[in-house]
From TrEMBL:
Keywords: DNA-binding, Transcription, Transcription regulation. Residues 28-88 form the HTH tetR-type domain. It comes from Pseudoxanthomonas mexicana. It comes from the Bacteria. Residues 1-27 are annotated as: Disordered. Pfam families: TetR_C_7 (PF14246), TetR_N (PF00440). PROSITE patterns: HTH_TETR_2. This is TetR/AcrR family transcriptional regulator. One of its GO terms (molecular function) is transcription cis-regulatory region binding. InterPro entries: Homeodomain-like_sf (IPR009057), HTH-type_TetR-like_transc_reg (IPR050109), HTH_TetR (IPR001647), Tet_transcr_reg_TetR-rel_C_sf (IPR036271), TetR_C_Proteobacteria (IPR039536). Residues 51-70 bind DNA.
């Protein structure tokens, strides 16, 4: 005897199509390509000289994809600055658990920071920021928070942890952080931004970093 057909309430509903929209996972490969294109174009052409169409073309994606990942040009600029800093000054450099001496860790941070600020992209971006009327104050603040402020805050947190461990004697970690990176920049960075010299060779760079770390430790080393 044939079985009766299932009642409407027991019939299976057709499968729903996959959800799309803002909550859909982003393609990390496309995001990385967009960031890489943005880093190169902003450094070479300046903020105002770059369009979202150019970035999309350089990254090999549609302009809609660029907006989907970053929202607008300001947000993409901030993300590009942050990505460049994270690439050359990774969070691992500021971890208290790293093995080795405090001197070695400070040297590693100093070398990474010096390589970052003397890179062609950083020098070009610095010059762009210095041109009056090139970008507005809001975007300058965005740049500062995404790049220099992130680095200063991470280093200040490391100094505070080293103070807590008794490795350093630093009354004000925020001031000490500014002092350290200002010393690392030195005269070379200013001369490079003025086009008066090129990036120093490995030996000169090492001497500069070593001298800076020695001075810093003489001021804040454990007594």
């Amino acid at each position: 005897m044939a079985s009766p057909p299932p009642s409407p309430s027991r019939r299976k509903s057709p499968a729903k199509p996959a959800a799309s929209g803002p909550g859909r996972p982003k393609d990390l490969g496309k995001r990385a390509a967009i960031l890489e294109a943005a880093k190169q174009l902003f450094a070479r052409e300046g903020f105002n000289g770059v369009s979202m169409d150019q970035i999309a073309a350089e990254a090999g994606v549609s302009k809609l994809t660029v907006y989907s990942h970053f929202g607008d040009k300001d947000a993409l600029f901030a993300a590009a600055v942050q990505a460049k800093c994270a690439e050359m000054l990774p969070d691992a450099l500021f971890e208290i658990e790293l093995t080795g001496s405090v001197r070695d860790q400070l040297k590693a941070i100093g070398e990474a920071f010096f390589a970052l600020i003397t890179s062609e992209e950083a020098i070009s971006t610095h010059r762009m920021m210095m041109v009056p009327g090139n970008i507005d104050d809001r975007l300058k603040q965005t740049f500062w928070e995404a790049g220099p402020q992130r680095t200063h805050d991470a280093f200040a947190a490391l100094l505070q942890a080293l103070v807590a461990k008794g490795e350093l004697d630093v009354p004000d970690v925020a001031i000490a952080s500014v002092q350290f990176f200002t010393l690392i920049k030195g005269e070379v960075h200013a001369r490079m931004t003025c086009g008066l010299c090129s990036q120093p060779g490995p030996l000169d760079r090492r001497r500069h970093i070593d001298a800076t770390v020695d001075m810093f430790l003489r001021a804040y080393g454990r007594r």
